[in-house]
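Field reference: sequence -> structure
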Amino acid sequence: MPDQSTDPRPLTTAGFGLLAALGAATAIGAALSHSYAGYAVGLVVLGAAALAAYRAARTAETRTDQLVLHRLRQDPTLDEHTLAASLGLRPAPVRLSLHRLSRSDSLPQAGGPPSDRN
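Structure field:
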């Protein structure tokens, strides 16, 4: 069971977001001082950090989807709150994962959000 207190993913994503903001500030400052090389560097840092933050978030989503799917294959009758508690996650990421898995038709027959069980 993952322990959220030691999970580095939120900090990683926040760190990349901070780096992107720093790149944007650098680009703005360089543009105001007519330093176009600094402007270019700031934009490259902004773009690279934004891409890295996106990839870190997608990796976290993929891992959550794998955990949810594995747990639902063991017991497809679990609801989102029980599932979240058993995985050591908050209900919101589990709900989003159930939605993604439902859209891709990857859920076991009895699992999924309550609206998909009809």
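Note: The longest helix spans residues 36-74.
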